[in-house]
Amino acid sequence: MAILAAVAEVVLRLAFGFCNSPLYVSDPDFEYIYAPNQDVKRFGSVLRTNSFSMRNDEVLPTDTLVILLIGDSVVNGGSLTDQENIASTLLEKRFLKDFNKRVRVLNISAGSWGPDNMAAYLKKFGLFHAKLMCLVTSSHDAHDIMSHQSPVGIDPQMPAKQYPVALYELWDRYRWMFFYYFNTIFFAPNVPQDSIVASGDSLKKDSVQIKKDSVKTQKLNNAGIRKPGLGFNPGYEQLYEMAKTNNIPFFIYLHPEISEIEMGHFNDQGDEIIDFARERNIRLINEFQLGIRKDLYRKSDVVHYNDEGQIFLTDNLYPLFREYLKPSL
After folding, report:
1. Which residues contact 105 (CB under 8 A, 6 or more apart)?
2. Under DSSP, is residue 109 helix (H, G, I), strand (E, B) or coil?
3. Which of 28, 70, 97, 194 is 20 to 30 A from 145 in CA distance terms?
4. Is 174 domain-assigned?
5. Domain tally, the chain
6. pLDDT tens track of the chain, all 329 residues?
7. Cα Rg for the chain, rounded, in angstroms?
8. How many CB atoms lie within 10 A of CB 93?
């Protein structure tokens, strides 16, 4: 038994990156974010952060062409998406190839952030001399309002330090999977796989964690992700005002959930975001009009792109970014 445990420990560490998880830090202004200056490999994917906790190389004083790509785990990608495959990296490489210029696409994001988290981050660290701001958002962000109660070090999905034993990490962070599949196989065989969310290391809210009541989870997914915040998220207005005050072009890229793709339109929360943009004459990119498809999402996930989806996002954003930066390229 001891030999089996030792072998399992080695396999979990070397093959899957257990005890090498991306770590998080709490923040009084925007709740939490990946810890800065990390370089880890998890589930075969590399995740790096700079001194500002962005999934980017370090920001330099010489960076004069800067785009702020802000969002939640859809933009961040989490540890299931390699650093080379996230849209911010792909966009920087494409600009360098096409124009032989260093254009920074700063990935300002964290799993389950709402627009108010993003606005608070920018208020704290500044706008990095940005030429353009792009908010990638989804319907559930409309009411995803900060509670200022950081789960870092409390929620197993948001560790503040590495687990000392891989087997313990497997149990502490992923035991819900064992219970879910046991329940599915023996007690609820007819629950569709769409009710499972392959969240990896995404944060607790944005990954829509599996609930014990699988029927309740199924209904939640069918209706779209619902956040408990009261009122429309104030971060949308804050980002808009921030961009307006600093004369920075700002647009919103609205990304649907799987349930919305199945309906063929955004739900009522998405409509609130569309109405907000229309009332303020903010340019809004409706991803339905760009041909979004379910096969661009991670398997058994309700909102996150797979690698092909990150390319799809890159292909959509690149001409828009190029349009705004044209005078400087």
Report:
1. 56, 67, 69, 87, 88, 89, 91, 92, 95, 321
2. strand
3. 194
4. no
5. 1
6. 888 888 888 888 988 889 899 999 999 999 999 999 999 999 999 999 999 999 999 999 999 999 999 999 999 999 999 999 999 999 999 999 999 999 999 999 999 999 999 999 999 999 999 999 999 999 999 999 999 999 999 999 999 999 998 888 999 888 877 666 666 666 654 544 433 343 444 444 443 343 344 544 444 444 578 888 789 999 999 999 999 999 999 999 999 999 999 999 999 999 999 999 999 999 999 999 999 999 999 999 999 999 999 999 999 999 999 999 999 99
7. 20
8. 14
Decide if 106 is inside a domain.
yes
Query: Measuring CA to CA, which residue among 70, 66, 59, 71 is closest to residue 131?
Result: 66
Both tokens of 122, joined, read 């920018």
Q: How far apart are CA 257 and CA 263, in angstroms?
A: 10
**Cα-to-chain-centroid distance, residue 23:** 15
Question: Which domain does 232 fall in, by range?
Answer: 2-151+227-328
CA distance 20 to 48: 12
Query: Phi/psi of residue 73, each to 5°?
Result: -70, -15
Provide the CATH number for the domain around residue 65.
3.40.50.1110
What SS3 class is residue 161?
coil
Instruction: Count CA within 13 A, CB hemisphere, residue 164.
Output: 0
- Does any domain span residue 87? yes
Distance from first CA to last CA of the chain, Å, rounded? 63
Pair of tokens at residue 198:
């392959």
d(CA 258, CA 302): 5
Instruction: Quickly tell me which residue has 């911010």 as its tokens.
Output: 88
Three-state DSSP at 77 gives coil
7-10: Cβ within 8 A, 24+ apart: 8/166, 8/167, 9/165, 9/166, 9/167
Instruction: Tell me the residue type at 209.
Output: Q
In a domain, 220, yes or no: no
Token reading at 118: 């993003």
